[in-house]
Give the backbone structure.
Amino acid sequence: MASDDSTRNLSLSLYHYLCQNIVGYEDHVKTIRMMNNVRDNLVTDQKVCITSGSFGEGIEMKGSDIDMMHVSKEIKVYETMSSVVKIYHKTYFSMYMEETKPGFTSLLLEYTNAVDILPICTDVRGKLFLSNLKYKQSLEQPRMNVVHGPCLSDHEGLYDYCFCLHSESWITAANQWILRPNNGWPSPEVKQSIIDHGVLFVPIGVKGSANEEIEWRLSFSVGEKLLIYAFSHTLEGCYKY
C-alpha cells in the first residue's frame, strides 16, 4: 500500500511539474487552442492563416517565437494536372520530383494569368519552376524582411511567417502513412481529417543541392497539430519534455 501511495504521489508530482514548466494546465492549453482556431478561421480572399509550432499546438514553450503559416489561395498545387479543371484567375503548379530528395519537390508552372508569377519563376532547361527564394523576396515587408530558413522573420525574432502553398489532395509519396497499421491510434476520424487537409509546401530546398532554389519541402504541419490534439494532456507533457 505504501509503495502504491509513493507511486501515486510521484505521478502527481510529475504531472504538476509538466503542467507548471512544460505545457501548462489543461484548461490553459484548451484556451490557447480555441484562440488559435478562431484566428485561423479568419480567412481572407488571398490567404489562409495557420498557427503552427508549439504555440499552434496550444503549448507555450519558454523562449519560443510565434510561428504562422500563410497559405496562398491564389496558387494551387497538384501532383498531376490530368483531371484538374482550371479557373481563369488562379495559378497552377504541378509537382516535379524527378531530381529531388525524399521530402522535397520542385513546382513546375502549368498555368497562370497573374503578372507577378513569371518574375518569381526560374527557367531550367526550358521549363519554368517556382523559385523559393524569389517567392519569399516578393513577400518581404519593412518589418518582416529577415529570411530565416523557409520563413520571413522580424528583426526582434519574435515572429516567423512561413508563406506556403497547398495541395488539397493527399500525395502518392505519403501513401505509406495511410496504409501503415496504427494499432488504434490515431483514430480513423483523426487519420481521415489529416488526409482531408492535404499537404503544404514550404519555400526551402536541400542545402547545397544543385536545384536548391527551386526545391520546396513537403510539410505536414496541420497533420502533426491534429495528432498532438489527439494526445491526452499527460501524454502532451511527456512528448514536450
Summary: The chain is about 35% helix and 25% strand. Confidence is low (pLDDT under 50) at residues 28-36, 53-58, 61-65.
